[in-house]
Amino acid sequence: MKVVITEDYNEMSTVATQYLLGAMHGQYRKNISITAGSTPKKVYEILVPLVKNKEYFEQVHYYNFDEIEFKGSGNEYGVTMTNLNKMFFDPAEIKKERIHVLDWTNYETQDERIKADGGLDFVLLGVGADGHFCGNLPNTTKFGDLTSRVDEDATPNMVDVLLNEVGGVEEMRPSFYVTMGPKSIMQIKQLVMIANGKEKAEIVKRLVEGTVSEEYPATLLTTHPNMTLIVDKEAASLL
Amino acid sequence: MKVVITEDYNEMSTVATQYLLGAMHGQYRKNISITAGSTPKKVYEILVPLVKNKEYFEQVHYYNFDEIEFKGSGNEYGVTMTNLNKMFFDPAEIKKERIHVLDWTNYETQDERIKADGGLDFVLLGVGADGHFCGNLPNTTKFGDLTSRVDEDATPNMVDVLLNEVGGVEEMRPSFYVTMGPKSIMQIKQLVMIANGKEKAEIVKRLVEGTVSEEYPATLLTTHPNMTLIVDKEAASLL
Amino acid sequence: MKVVITEDYNEMSTVATQYLLGAMHGQYRKNISITAGSTPKKVYEILVPLVKNKEYFEQVHYYNFDEIEFKGSGNEYGVTMTNLNKMFFDPAEIKKERIHVLDWTNYETQDERIKADGGLDFVLLGVGADGHFCGNLPNTTKFGDLTSRVDEDATPNMVDVLLNEVGGVEEMRPSFYVTMGPKSIMQIKQLVMIANGKEKAEIVKRLVEGTVSEEYPATLLTTHPNMTLIVDKEAASLL
Amino acid sequence: MKVVITEDYNEMSTVATQYLLGAMHGQYRKNISITAGSTPKKVYEILVPLVKNKEYFEQVHYYNFDEIEFKGSGNEYGVTMTNLNKMFFDPAEIKKERIHVLDWTNYETQDERIKADGGLDFVLLGVGADGHFCGNLPNTTKFGDLTSRVDEDATPNMVDVLLNEVGGVEEMRPSFYVTMGPKSIMQIKQLVMIANGKEKAEIVKRLVEGTVSEEYPATLLTTHPNMTLIVDKEAASLL
Questions:
Q1: Measured between alpha carbons, how far is A140 from A153 in angstroms, rounded to an integer?
Q2: pLDDT in tens, A146-200
Q3: Which of B137, B155, B60, B151 is nearest to B107 (CA)?
Q4: Are C176 and C152 contacting, i.e. CB atoms less than 8 angstroms apart?
Q5: Whole-number percent of chain C with pLDDT over 70
Q6: What is the pLDDT of residues A15-50, one digit of tens each?
Q7: Which residue, C42, C82, C46, is CA-closest to C66?
Q8: Given this model, what pLDDT does residue B38 score?
Q9: b/e string for C78-103 if b means 16 or more Cβ within 10 A?
Q10: What is the nearest CA distance from D40 to chain A, expressed in angstroms?
Q11: pTM for the complete prediction?
């Protein structure tokens, strides 16, 4: 694992975007998975004007890596895709045929479909203070899991997690979510993880110096042969 | 992980040699790590005449991944290198300057030296019925370990393991051995593991279908993005 | 360009097969183009039993790179594919859906189709004493040509060439043949060229030491960043 | 060859910088060659603050690809390095041990030294209206040339070219310059060429649509398997 320490959130985002753009350019199809959430917000702010309506990025295919249904809402998209649409796919005007949606209806074939598409070339990931990445929260998935569903009884507070994700609206709370598992993510050719802020300092210390353990799912990724962790000074403050 | 199921030990060895030769050819330096032991015996029988005195393999550099001293013997080499010398390096007349020896004197800088050499491109590994690979026996190293020493008190039977490795000669029994750790091996760009015979059927089943757990160290390698497991029919009999 | 000098035709064929097998193994689709003719005969003799009915080569897709119609014969295949079928595809029992035929009906879209398939990963080529490769004979195609048709009036003796290719049967002589052009072949990620015998010594000398010139079309390939020329001692005798 | 058409000089420079940064990031040594001259001015303006004092770019090694001596001046550096120092190496504070200078004293071993360093991973090139790249002016080098010296009698106006390069000071005019040849550049794993302005429209048209010919040296590069041509609208106006 390479650790890139940057000054602040802006530089973290700039460097992450450099990695991302490097992985997107090329003559042949590039399969990229990108993360929703608050950490990559600036990455997409930088990225949108660079990608919007640019024919030279037409070889890029996008994949989301987890999803939570807004149950009974009739929404085509769940929490993750709604967020990605808003932050990136809509403003960058990415064509639908190049967005490969993972959701609650097709998760069982996600790993097969990706394999048939030639594998993923690159993923941009965040990490939680609890060591989760994608939907791989502690005590939900195992290191050996491929794309999985995580049910409401997976952990004591999972019902609350699900409720919170759909904005606290009980009627829209689904009974499970889906996520590419640790093994699915490890199959990707290049991993880039971003983390900023003091609240990430402990997990970053653990990723850089600590053991690999299912208690902190992201520790597995530190063994990947092409993994880069990009952090700001605050997230690096315990190193 | 790709699983290659072959008819028998000969075909397993033939296919492993195809992977190995594919990784050795090229215009620029290739860094290869190879395994000692009984499983690869046939691989080296096939390999020696193909490599001996062939200038077109002069870009290949070799690395052993574990070592046990013959203590007090005055031997330059330990158990692993002695075995590799006998099976491959001597009969293939590989020049010493292209053999990068890991031993009890330099293990602490092994990972740094490999990084400075550009990383390892390929490793050929065996697997034990107990799930060990290299010197990563159950309950010795952890998934997050780089090259490590394993002491005689690491497990209840480690003294016996060490004694057995040096041929049962108590005076030559060292108090520790050294091995590239799980994290060191995961950094290698391509992994190929070979297994044959009924006694490997259970561990092979576990590698292919089971969970990833430090109880069976080799299960970690199943998450590597470029890992191939080559087995014969007997080792595949429980799949 | 790397030059591999081998003892004889057998070793040249063995080493070429090592390169080929190295390019065929893998987890994801591999697109390989192979040559017909007499030079690779031994390569296919070695290859057929190693590939026949082996599931672990099911990711390999095959492409021929030139073709000459047996005109009016009603034959589905032309000269090249007939030869490849006989030497390799039939005895190795390669499934038709993994053989991507170039012929006189579809040559205009060959480069597009290959691009859509992700590009070719590897090509095995021969070379003529006159410096031709594929159907790129001197004074037929230009360095900048993609897949092209070469007409009977391209050179003074082209009618005879075409006649000879279809076995001297005037009724079957077509008015043109098709070939991937120099630029098409240069787009392939890895090139391996084989040459044996004294009659190849001059062109081999030219490839290794000489200038790059359309008079000897294969000289262009010596500029490719991943090109290997495998020759026997006789073909290397003027180096 | 992939052709990237951008709006203007700024976007051309932005996209070129994206390619460059993508090639510079990584865990292992990266060998990069970059161009002097006026076309890349904006690339270096963008690049300098992104690279200056950034430890995460310490794996990058830099190589110049041509040089002209300021004769008798006692200057350590020639025209190209002086220009690169001013535009990039000095303001970005690149350490000298990571700058591998080609000059009039060591050009004969340039290709060997690069090979020993593992080859070049990436080059950023400009192109002249006359089709030259690096110091490969029409009628100076041949497609098959490695790093070469070009003497004052190479072309009728070469004395003037040399004089102009050293600022018109006759006492400093050298009798030759050195350049990596077409074959040296083709060995690089990834090529990126930039061109802007109307005066480049004809050569760009020739690169995209024309033949490959030594009259226009850069046409050779259009056959490279990983070549990108980045142009602005004006340079693309004849496509």
A1: 10
A2: 999 999 999 999 999 999 999 999 999 999 999 999 999 999 999 999 999 999 9
A3: B151
A4: yes
A5: 100
A6: 999 999 999 999 999 999 999 999 999 999 999 999
A7: C82
A8: 92
A9: bbbbbbbbebbbebbebeeebbbbbb
A10: 19
A11: 0.97
How does B122-153 read in b/e, with b if 16+ C-beta sit within 10 Å?
bbbbbbbeebbbbbbbbebbbbbbbbbbbebe
- In this structure, what token pair is assigned to residue C135? 């159907």
Cα angle, residue B57 at apex, residues B51 and B59 outer, rounded to 5°: 150
Asked if pLDDT for residue C8 goes beyond 90, the answer is yes
Domains of chain A, CATH where assigned: 2-232 (3.40.50.1360)
Identify all chain B residues contacting C19, using CB atoms and an 8 Å cutoff: 22, 25
Residue C146 CA neighbour count, 13 Å, CB half? 16
Nearest to A228 by CA among D218, D43, D85, D56: D56
Nearest Cα to Cα of residue A112 among B193, C27, C58: C27
pLDDT category at A210 given cuts 50, 70, 90 is confident
d(CA A197, CA A200): 6
Q: What is the pLDDT of residue C16?
A: 98
DSSP result, D167-201: TT-GGG--SEEEE--HHHHHTSSEEEEEE-SGGGH
* CA C176/CA C153 separation, integer angstroms: 9
Alpha helices (runs of H) in B88-193, residue ranges in sequence order: 110-116, 158-165, 182-186
Query: Using a CB-CB distance cutoff of 8 angstroms, which residues of chain C are in contact with residue B2?
Result: 26-27, 56
The DSSP 8-state label assigned to residue B23 in this structure reads: H
First to last CA, chain C: 14
Nearest CA in chain B to A208: B144
Two tokens, residue B218: 């080799």
Nearest to B26 by CA among D84, A214, C190: C190
Number of C-beta neighbours around residue C34 at 10 A: 22
Q: What is the pLDDT of residues D218-237, one digit of tens each?
A: 999 999 999 999 999 999 99
Closest CA to B31 of B86, B108, B113, B126: B113
Neighbours of chain D (3+ CB pairs under 8 A): A, B, C
Question: CA torsion, points C108, C113, C119, C121, in degrees to nearest 10?
Answer: -90
C196, two tokens: 């044996």
Do the beta carbons of residue C192 and residue C2 sit within 8 Å?
A: no
Does the complex come out with an ipTM higher than 0.90? yes
Q: Annotated catalytic residue: which of C61, C100, C132, C232? A: C132
Whether B22 contacts chain C with CB within 8 A? yes
